[in-house]
Amino acid sequence: MEHEFTKKIHEILRKNYSNSSDKIFKESPLIQYLNIKTKSASKGSKSRGSFANLYAIYILVEDYISKGFHKSGKYSEYEGAIFTNLFKRQRELPFGKKLQNHALNHRMNQEFKKYFPICDYIPILRDSNTNRYWFNENILKVIVDGETLNLAKTIIQIIDSYVETKKEAFEKFIQFCESAQKLPETEVINFITTLIEPTVDARIFEIVSYCILKYYYHNQIIYWGFEIDKIKEDNLKLYKTGRTNANDGGIDFVMKPLGRFFQVTETVDVKKYFLDIDKIERYPITFVIKSSDPTLTLKQKIQEQAERQYSVKAIVTRYMACIEEIINVTILIERFSEAIKEGYLKDILNEIIKQSRVEFNYEDDFDVYDYEDIITLE
């Protein structure tokens, strides 16, 4: 696979290994894996970054280097890296604050084996009893022209370069959002519309869909109360339950006072949908789907998968009844247009900027806990 960032990988290899660089690129499954995982570097902020699996590699290789095993050759005697130290370090890295332990425990290994099924080694070694971790030294080394080369420092350099590229892309994205405040209305509308296309990064899609739906519901009124003579008027308010990709029980947005739940997703995998439904005890949930397929088509796909997976119609019916509404890209655009008619275009753009700064770790200028539209779950 060749993509824009492949050039940077070759550049780093040539700098470190001169004439052996091309052979290393071809012979090292780990370098090949990094090449696969960094293909989004040239696609800017709107493409998904593969930070979880890359950081699982990074923190273990960094630990390996920091203790001098790339020189001493005594890694087999190492008692292993402590999980809490690795987890803390992972969250110190750019875009790493909300990463979980899934990549360390199994996802990185699973994906690596998918790409390299005939490789004799798995990258991450773990002792579940002691919760200690190692990076498989066999994958860090490659033999070229009879010489064994240790790629540890090169691996760190490649990931560092990729992260820096993504940081620059996100900074440009936020700067562009801020500059869009001065654009004519039609250009602002076109810009925001591009941010909910099916090809954009999942985090940006979630941020923008929230901002649109927040102001779409903003002026809708509900009358409610606990006593018939004490009915009160209230606006619908949409809240975020934390950052994107957070481990928050499958709830991305919550609406008051109706108590509606919203989950943003980019898949039509029935297992994912039913897992989200199970997490909230089969409470009705609205799915915001990063797809341009008609809502009836999307629901039919979920129904067909459910019927293949479950042989009992009553189970399928009960799960499907929990899908309160499906909001696709087309409906999001329609609701965006409605919010514009209500005069909320500027508010939506400002909200996108605010939420993006939080999501991409620009909290120095904004305090996340001051936001009335974000609920942080402890």
What can you tell me about this protein's structure?
With 378 residues, the chain is α+β, with helices and mostly antiparallel strands. It folds into two domains: 6-167, no CATH class; 184-370. The protein has 16 helices and twelve strands. The protein has helices at residues 6-17, 21-27, 29-37, 51-66, 69-72, 83-92, 102-115, 137-140, 152-179, 185-194, 202-217, 270-279, 295-309, 313-320, 329-341, 345-359; strands at 81-82, 124-127, 132-135, 141-144, 147-150, 221-224, 232-235, 237-240, 253-256, 260-265, 285-289, 323-327. The protein has a five-stranded mixed beta sheet with strand order 8-9-10-11-12, with helices on both faces. Strands 1-3-2 form a three-stranded antiparallel beta sheet. Strands 4-5 form a two-stranded antiparallel sheet. Strand 4 (141-144) and strand 5 form a beta hairpin. Helix 4 crosses helix 9 (152-179) and helix 11 packs across helix 15 (329-341). The two termini are 42 Å apart.
